[in-house]
Amino acid sequence: MPTNIPRSMMEAVARDAIDPLAPLRTRFAHPDPALIYLDGNSLGRMPVTTAALMQDVVAYQWGDRLIRAWNEGWFTLPERLGGKIAQLIGAQADEVIVADSTSVNLYKLATAALRARSGRTRILTDDGNFPSDLYILQGIAQEHGATLEVIASADGIHGSAGALMGALGGDVALLTLSHTLYKSAYTYDMAALTTAAHNAGALTLWDLSHAAGAVPVALNAAGADLAVGCCYKYLNGGPGAPAFLYVRRDLQTQLFNPIQGWMGQRNLFAFEGDYAPVDGLRRFLSGSPPVLSLAAIEPGVDLLLEAGMDALRAKSLALSEMLIGLWEERLAPLGYRLQSPRDGAWRGSHVGLGHDEAWRIDQALIHQAGVLPDFRQPDTIRLGIAPLYNSFADIYAAVAALQRVVEERLYTQYAAARPAVT
Amino acid sequence: MPTNIPRSMMEAVARDAIDPLAPLRTRFAHPDPALIYLDGNSLGRMPVTTAALMQDVVAYQWGDRLIRAWNEGWFTLPERLGGKIAQLIGAQADEVIVADSTSVNLYKLATAALRARSGRTRILTDDGNFPSDLYILQGIAQEHGATLEVIASADGIHGSAGALMGALGGDVALLTLSHTLYKSAYTYDMAALTTAAHNAGALTLWDLSHAAGAVPVALNAAGADLAVGCCYKYLNGGPGAPAFLYVRRDLQTQLFNPIQGWMGQRNLFAFEGDYAPVDGLRRFLSGSPPVLSLAAIEPGVDLLLEAGMDALRAKSLALSEMLIGLWEERLAPLGYRLQSPRDGAWRGSHVGLGHDEAWRIDQALIHQAGVLPDFRQPDTIRLGIAPLYNSFADIYAAVAALQRVVEERLYTQYAAARPAVT
Description:
By secondary structure, chain A is an alpha/beta fold. Chain A has two domains: 9-48 and 309-413, Aspartate Aminotransferase, domain 1 (Alpha-Beta Complex); 73-305, Type I PLP-dependent aspartate aminotransferase-like (Major domain) (Aspartate Aminotransferase, domain 2, 3-Layer(aba) Sandwich). In chain A, 36% of the residues lie in helices and 13% in strands. In chain A, the strands form three sheets. Chain A has a seven-stranded mixed β-sheet, with helices on both faces. Chain A has a four-stranded antiparallel β-sheet with strand order 9-10-13-12. In chain A, strands 1-11 form a two-stranded parallel sheet. In chain A, a hairpin with a 3-residue loop joins strand 12 and strand 13 (380-384). The longest helix of chain A has 23 residues, at 309-331. Chain A is globular, with a radius of gyration of 22 Å. The N and C termini of chain A lie far apart (44 Å). The interface between A and B is large, with 88 and 89 residues.
């Protein structure tokens, strides 16, 4: 059991006082200073400067410059933002671009990969992948007469690396995985799996939604082919922010976007009748980007770059180690189960705690304890740790609340199951 | 030649004084009051209330409510906005939803239509359709082994209705057209073409981007099957605003979205492993919507609803008749050619004027005359008329500028051709 983790609020506050990243917390809006927000991996907090930026984009760029603003920055915003995100995920500036949603980008790149490996009929993934990714892949598999194989994790926590490697073969077109799993935070060895996929002649497509901005990602070093990811989680780009996609430079002219949009057209204002995509990454753009949401991505990315991924990772690990250490002492005896890797080397930046009463505990945390975590079916309380703004005091307070809600049975007044949303 | 059109700035101003829609002009931002903006069919002006709304969405909904805001309005925003847009285009509230871009929506609906008419191998369109739509359709045709037939207009202005009807046959899966053509503003008889397509067993898909909010559209009355459209032109929803799509109610459960996104999933927070779309229109959603850009759509739509489509159409016609009347008297002798239907019954809300020096005239209008029109290859100056905020004085000033730029040869200092954008 680690001895250097804060074990009182006073120790936690003392730890925050010497945290070099602590000043960055004030760069985010905290209209309710009492809220313990541990859902930054669902929707990141709002950077303070975003509000002023949006006023500039709305009132000046749109309201005053009108159509002229396209040539004054909007047209190149997708690659300019992509170039910044590239620095967070170990890619070159011209290998990342912002477009559409994660689902649409996954659709585009997975379809492109299947076409580039025509004749191969298997798509490999695991049961730790986002259901939203599985839905997209199911549709693509059906359309292309391919088989989607969803390899199950042996323990529901530590992914399926061994089984995936064993399943790779000459008929696999694509291996596609979440780099960091959305429930357990298990993080795959991207280089090892990419090498194995390449040895089998398959392409790889990584979903970085729970990794980008929270875990060091090294796409180029791993030799990764393709990736997509979300900008509204650890990147703090705003609700439903457009997503990013990555295509390794040498693949860019070999792959084709199935949604052949005019934003990817060569000399687009020639209005020529036949689609002829540009050579570079813009060919993976489709229609016009939602500029207001697009522009809002920048302040959050800038804050991550200012902090640096190494410092962010160090703080994230310190916070999750503290959380797990306190879980072991105080929460495990109350029926909380650790649903994330104990070894930090395999863990992303969130921690899943299971409990038989998880849904009701989640409700009590929100409504009685001022803690906002996330809930994932059937029994996971997911605690997202955003090292840009979460503090050691946040973690201490959250553990205290998790303890109190069960000890004092504060959860018993809530309905036993989450209502269906249809 | 009409006798009731304003023929001096004084007469134009007098006409504005009795225009019942004139007060709505002040509901839009005019930071440069001298600018004559005739590009509202590329990017509509910003409603004054949008700036305050965006501050609320950013600082309160995102900044303060954080993830809770999804259940406080964001999840239902796509159909709530769709229900309002439905009133502008003659559809039921549950037949229109906002999602993605026009290109992505066209891809989803055209693919769904081809699958619903499997065995049929022809897609019919015309050469007046957006190049961006043609690109999308080319990709779909190639993927599905179908043929895209682009029927040419006989005069480049009045569409291809007769030829399209003649080309319909038992092997046509889909007839897809822009309701109002982006260059000439010719507007198809939606009911007649839909009936002809249905008689041949084909589905219809209308692009309403240059019609919605400017021309009365009657999807239900015409029996139209499918439609898509843009929210950043006459709807004033902001740069690159998410687009809308329409699926006739009885078709909604028969058609399937190829981009099987979690936003269309039945009971989406069950996180079930298999895609099972909801029965209603949400099945045509894919990933998470860009909320900031999505929310910004509402003020412009509200202003259109407040004005009413009949009053908007009446004013739009009065403005375009004035423009064409003055063209005939003052601009035709200077080499300007009318590239839109002379008969208002077939004309949308913009007017195309051709000229051998169109590109250079366009530059002179922008840089020397304070007029902002649009240019379309190879020789069209496109004058968009947004009846919510364009005035009779705007039209008079624009004609005077078009006249002066040629009479005084102000255009000669500009390069002869538009530079390529790649």
